Amino acid sequence: MRLEEKVAIITGSGNGIGKAIATRFAHEGAKVVIADFDEDALTKTVEELKEVHENVIGFNVNVVNEEDVNKMIDRTIEKFGRVDILVNNAGVLDNMQAAPNVEDKVWNRVMDINVGGVMRTMRKVIPAFVKQGGGTIVNMASITALTGGRGGLTYTAAKHAVAGMTKNVASHYGKQGIRANAIAPSQVKTGLTHSMDHLDKEGMELAIRGTNLMGEPLSVEDISNITVFLASDESSAINGVVLATDNGWSAY
Ligand SMILES: NC(=O)c1ccc[n+]([C@@H]2O[C@H](COP(=O)([O-])OP(=O)(O)OC[C@H]3O[C@@H](n4cnc5c(N)ncnc54)[C@H](O)[C@@H]3O)[C@@H](O)[C@H]2O)c1
Q1: Per-residue pLDDT tens for 6-19?
Q2: How many CA atoms lie within 13 A of 38 on its CB side?
Q3: Whole-model pTM above 0.85?
Q4: Looking at ligand 1, which atom is closest to the CA of residue 188?
Q5: How far is CA 221 from the centre of its chain?
Q6: Is 159 in contact with 144 (CB distance < 8 Å)?
Q7: 15: Cβ below 6 Å to ligand 1?
Q8: Closest ligand 1 atom to 159 CA
Q9: Is the minimum distance from the CB of 140 to ligand 1 under 6 angstroms?
Q10: What are the pLDDT digits (tens) for 45-93?
Q11: Is 155 a catalytic site residue?
Q12: How far apart are the CA of 53 and the centre of ligand 1, in A?
């Protein structure tokens, strides 16, 4: 019970990595808020997790929408009295578009979700953390946050921004008991590619150079293990880190 009595919000937790994190958090005793804009996945995940822990609630939230984000955090505090952990996990891919092929509509969507979404939740939660004397943020970056050529241009830029925001918050608010760290996974077995409507062949060919050195794709449990550690007090000395989670791929 490493998160006993902690209140945790996890965005994008209807599916994939977010769902695995929410499931693990519930097993570790946390009161869990499932937030997703995929209504069916949201309902299913809430129902499943209520069997693990009675204190599970769901919000239909689009992280692009400030009102949704603010309501989610206000209602969490109304229901549970506080919020201890925010996991910014919601994210989409960019069709792997190489620089010459970037479409404005793809750039704007990916930036609004992957960067704007993280900014909006942190903007709202930090004052609540300050008021209650602290809190912990875990942002789901990607190995593209630490490297150059392993994704499309927009996704790479967005995840670098997530790394920067993580360090900024850690640096500015660490003294007030707030920690912000990020996880930077290589490929994880999920349905993330569904967030692409077509694929840029040139970008894909460029991005997969070197995947022969990547090793096996990670499981969602690999990521939820690390998230529990970064969200819990066991990692209290770690702040502002972007943790490569890639079986050593980027070490080469
Ligand atoms: N799967 C991978 O290989 C991989 C690798 C590195 C990083 N990541 C990152 O991990 C995170 C989770 O990805 P995943 O692989 O579990 O994908 P996924 O598609 O299985 O899950 C993503 C979830 O986010 C939700 N979501 C997307 N946009 C949203 C929005 N605007 N508002 C609310 N919810 C939204 C989706 O509905 C979905 O439930 C993403 O940030 C992704 O960039 C994934």
Answers
A1: 999 999 999 999 99
A2: 20
A3: yes
A4: 3
A5: 14
A6: yes
A7: yes
A8: 43
A9: yes
A10: 999 999 988 999 999 999 999 999 999 999 999 999 999 999 999 999 9
A11: yes
A12: 24
3-state secondary structure the chain: CCCCCCEEEEECCCCHHHHHHHHHHHHCCCEEEEEECCHHHHHHHHHHHHCCCCCEEEEECCCCCHHHHHHHHHHHHHHHCCCCEEEECCCCCCCCCCHHHCCHHHHHHHHHHHHHHHHHHHHHHHHHHHHHCCEEEEEECCHHHCCCCCCCHHHHHHHHHHHHHHHHHHHHHHHHCEEEEEEEECCECCCHHHHCCCCCHHHHHHHCCCHHHCCCCECHHHHHHHHHHHHCHHHCCCCCCEEEECCCHHHC
Measured from the CB, is residue 58 less than 6 Å from ligand 1?
A: no
Q: Which of 19, 188, 218 gets mutated to test ligand 1 (max ligand atoms within 8 A of its CB)?
A: 188
